[in-house]
Amino acid sequence: MLTLCDRVPEDISGNIMLDWTKEVVVTGFKGSFEGTQDDVSSVIIDELQKVDVENRILLLIKLDASYEEVMKKIPELFTEHQEFVLHLASYSEQNKTTIFIEQKAFMSGYTKPDKNEFIPEGNRVKSESKEQELVTKVNVDDLVKELTEKCGLNGQKYGGLTVEKSEDPGRFIEGYTYFLSLDANPSSRLLVKIPAFQGECTKEAVASPECIGDVADMLTMCNRMRVDTNYTRDVVVTGFDTPFEDFDENPSAVVVDELMKIPIENVKIFPHKIPVAYEAVTEKLPELRKNCPDDVLHLATHSVRNTIYFQQKAFSHGYCREDINGYVPEGNKIEDEDEEEEQKKLKPFVDFDYLVEEVTEKCGLDGERYGGLKVEKSDDPGRFVGGYLYYLSIREGPVNTLYINVPPFEGECTKEAVANVIREVIRFLTRNDF
């Protein structure tokens, strides 16, 4: 399984980089709500300001309860922040003390005017999405169960406060916001609807680290955020299309082609072939991430026979080898890294021992099959274009990212055999926690 998120990247000496934090954007709505002085979600935002969570940054935002505000602010928000987003909204139902975690958002049906008497054109979300409904990839059933157990919400605590899954976010501003959010990235977005405070169901109880505060924390805890396997996972796979040594075709590009011949259940692969050039990978990276994939897999070729390497680290400095254009990065370092700083290394959140064990077993790599093909972990991705891309990709965060060196094809170590192993790696990444 993927390791816990508190296994943060380390510097070159193995010390934890304490500034590697995860950002959680939390939105609420300001203004009054159905007779109350302040919207409940706004009050919770104020309470969350009092919460201090280690290695977490809570970016708390209050939005005007208007469609125009949401249409303007939400896209701007995702341009700057691509990690975890928790939307809070109020609802009114007399004597109801239930927190609803919404699973779906809908494109149309927005007929209720906002405070400015504005109604969206066509009663629809302003989006290029072709889907009528979007579903979060967070496993809401598991989240509800864990919150209920951890917080002891047995119907008596906090005035009978409970947590439930819902598939009806409403067709008002909060539902409109949620659709825009899921359209940007369904993997780490949630809408939570909060009841009015009454009796023991207080603002402090709802905003406590055991309740809403814990939902925000859960979004960043990889070991506790389980993705529902019924959803299709989007996986970006890259290879290099520049010839390798005596091969007319680069084996990494050949493997990318092979992967597309046999579908993987609940996985959609987005293949990319990139020239072996530093500027090419730098320019390509935004395209690789623009649709917020769940996993990113970078393939490159090495000359070690019958061995596939899973690279555990990426390095910031040392790129002195010329690419196909004769170019070397300025200062022999990753773009935007301080030349005066000591070399950094980044690590993906992958349990490599378990990955090697699982793939070896699943593929039957007993030392004889596929001409003795084996998989191993490695700490040396090289200081060339592939390693350069790996560092950039991990730094981009927050999705699973892995760099793999594949061998040249010879004898029983065929392109089909290598592709079968890479398919199992993809299954491993997509069936384990994000």
TrEMBL record:
Gene Ontology MF annotations: cysteine-type peptidase activity
Pfam family of the protein (one): PgaPase_1
InterPro entries given in the database record: Peptidase_C15-like, Peptidase_C15-like_sf, PgaPase_1
Record key words, sorted: Hydrolase, Protease, Thiol protease
GO biological process: proteolysis
Family per similarity comment: Belongs to the peptidase C15 family.
PANTHER family for the chain: ABC TRANSPORTER-RELATED, PROTEASE FAMILY C15 PYROGLUTAMYL-PEPTIDASE I-RELATED
Protein name according to UniProt: Uncharacterized protein
